[in-house]
Description:
- The protein has 211 residues and is an all-alpha fold.
- It has a domain at 129-211: Orthogonal Bundle (YggX-like), CATH 1.10.3880.
- 61% of the residues lie in helices and 0% in strands.
- It has helices at residues 3-17, 22-34, 38-51, 56-68, 72-89, 92-104, 158-166, 169-186, 194-208.
- Mean pLDDT is 85; it is low at 117-127.
Amino acid sequence: MSDNADLIARFRKMATDDPDNELGHYRLGDLLLKEGQFAEAAASFRRTLELSPQFSKVYQLLGTCLLALGQRDEALATWRKGFEVADERGDNMPREAMAQLIAEQGETPPVSKRATAPSAGVAGATVPAGVGGFRCQRPTCMAGATARQLDKPPFNDELGQRIYNAICASCWNDWLRNYSVKVINELRLDLSTDHGEQEYERYMREFLGLD
């Protein structure tokens, strides 16, 4: 079995065993998309959006699947919806990617509302902030305006500082208390080995949206 096929099998099991695991559905969809299995990938992305409708990147990938399946109008509608979500969240990269995809279909992409709606009291600011001016950069963050920064970096290294700067306490605690346990158990990771540590960190980065 190829490495990709093995990963697909693992994430399919993760998504089946825990239907509310948006990380499992997202990673499964991403892997299936890369394998050209567009219908099944689209189903995984749809489930991801049911669980995390603010995950703007998924609209981009779902639209790509739909276009490959010959569903152009639905793909355009998905990208337009994703553009709005990304624009509202300040997710610049997926927003611009979807605008480009829409333009490539000969359609006029939406116009960002953020350029004309700066944050109050900050000249030119376009990123909504939470408590104390902190904004979580995780794509699936549910905290919104209540986002709170961690009290300190979780690790004494560059990754810990990056998490401290970009990820809110709610998302970090969700990883630490819930999804990290699922990853360790379902993928049978041995954290005493280099491979186990590397896999753990990789899934953590994906969950937090740091890759």
